[in-house]
């Protein structure tokens, strides 16, 4: 999903036209920003209040973690296991930040603010640019458009779901898993990723009936080190 | 109250890891094993969450209309449909199967 042209950092390569960068960034920001609607609906269906759904989108602002948290709460998970699952999903953003800090070279004072926008989409757009100026522009436009829309559509989704009542009758309980599948699909590139996914699926479903809510997901996370360990032993 | 505790912890945790990435010196997280794990953890979590939220109600394993919805989402992904269409397909098929009494 994330492409990195070889040309980046090479001063001989001219920057991209601002309009092209902005068009790409807005395309991603609008498309993904609109899916805040699905989050608002899912949150309301999970018994989370409109205020709580909005606080999550305003202050967490990393979709997969938000879906995971409301899913775990809906399943009756305790607050600590629910938050742990959301946290582990968010750890990938640390690695995005590591790449972005070199690419964007932000002033120290700006970093605490910029950090809030370090997510899959802003990283993908920034890394796809050929030079620092375009990368900064792409990061900012994607971050701003996605943040505004994601929060607006979260509010609309949560209010709408409260208004229509039973979200399951409208099939809206399928939105959460569909979002997870759409995020997962591009990651399944090699046998290792597929093995991790398959093992995690078995662990997640296998422990579900016997362990408290939220715990099976954390056990399923062990599929990652387990597959790496098995691969290391074989080679 | 439990919900607010979970929200507070998630807000703090998720912001901390975002900021850490921007602040730590390059190299601290660059060890190959750490990078591999960071790439594979989301795969494991997303796979488990997708399966759980499709095939469970509470702590019981069930197969219902959501499975048809997820299959529709999978098909839409294979056809390279955009993100929103994938989610819409899952919702529409799930609602359709329920309306038919599935």
From TrEMBL, chain A:
Cellular component GO terms, alphabetical: plasma membrane
Phosphoprotein keyword on record: no
Subcellular location as annotated: Cell membrane
Main location: membrane
Domain of life the protein comes from: Bacteria
InterPro entries in the record: Brnchd-chn_aa_trnsp_permease (IPR011606)
Keywords noted in UniProt: Cell membrane, Membrane, Transmembrane, Transmembrane helix, Transport
Residue ranges that the Swiss-Prot or TrEMBL entry lists as coiled coil: none
Residues passing through the membrane, by range: 28-61, 67-89, 137-161, 167-185, 197-230
GO biological process, one term: L-valine transmembrane transport
Pfam family of the protein (one): AzlC
First and last residue of the signal peptide: none
Topology in the lipid bilayer: Multi-pass membrane protein
Family designation: Belongs to the AzlC family.
Protein name, as recorded: Branched-chain amino acid ABC transporter permease
Species name: Streptomyces subrutilus
Lineage of source species: Bacteria, Bacillati, Actinomycetota, Actinomycetes, Kitasatosporales
From TrEMBL, chain B:
TM region positions: 6-25, 37-55, 67-97
Organism domain of life: Bacteria
Keywords: Membrane, Transmembrane, Transmembrane helix
Pfam families reported in the protein's UniProt record: AzlD (PF05437)
Protein name: Branched-chain amino acid transporter AzlD
Organism: Streptomyces subrutilus
Origin organism lineage: Bacteria, Bacillati, Actinomycetota, Actinomycetes, Kitasatosporales
């Amino acid at each position: 999903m994330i492409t990195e042209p070889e040309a980046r950092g090479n001063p001989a390569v001219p920057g991209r036209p601002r309009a092209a960068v902005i068009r790409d960034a807005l395309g991603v920001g609008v498309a993904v920003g609109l899916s805040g609607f699905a989050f608002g609906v899912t949150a309301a269906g999970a018994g989370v209040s409109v205020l709580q759904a909005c606080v999550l989108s305003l202050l967490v602002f990393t979709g997969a973690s938000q879906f995971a948290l409301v899913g775990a709460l809906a399943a009756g998970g305790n607050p600590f296991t629910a938050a742990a699952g959301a946290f582990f999903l968010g750890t990938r953003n640390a690695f995005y930040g590591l790449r972005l800090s070199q690419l964007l070279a932000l002033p120290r004072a700006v970093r605490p603010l910029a950090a809030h926008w370090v997510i899959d989409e802003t990283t993908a757009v920034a890394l796809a640019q050929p030079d620092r100026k375009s990368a900064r522009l792409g990061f900012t436009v994607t971050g701003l458009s996605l943040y505004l829309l994601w929060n607006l559509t979260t509010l609309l989704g949560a209010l709408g779901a409260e208004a229509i009542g039973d979200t399951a009758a409208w099939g809206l309980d399928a939105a959460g898993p569909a979002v997870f599948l759409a995020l997962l699909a591009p990651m399944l590139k090699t046998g290792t990723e597929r093995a991790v996914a398959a093992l995690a699926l078995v662990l997640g479903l296998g422990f579900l009936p016997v362990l408290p809510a939220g715990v099976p997901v954390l056990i399923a996370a062990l599929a990652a080190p387990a597959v790496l360990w098995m691969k290391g032993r074989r080679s | 109250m439990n919900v607010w505790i979970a929200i507070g912890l998630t807000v703090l945790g998720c912001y901390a890891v975002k900021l850490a990435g921007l602040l730590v010196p390059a190299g601290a997280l660059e060890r190959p094993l750490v990078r591999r794990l960071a790439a594979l953890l989301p795969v494991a979590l997303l796979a488990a969450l997708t399966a759980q939220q499709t095939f469970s109600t509470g702590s019981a394993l069930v197969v219902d209309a959501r499975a048809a919805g997820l299959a529709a989402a999978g098909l839409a992904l294979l056809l390279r449909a955009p993100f929103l269409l994938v989610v819409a397909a899952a919702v529409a098929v799930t609602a359709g199967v329920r309306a038919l009494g599935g």
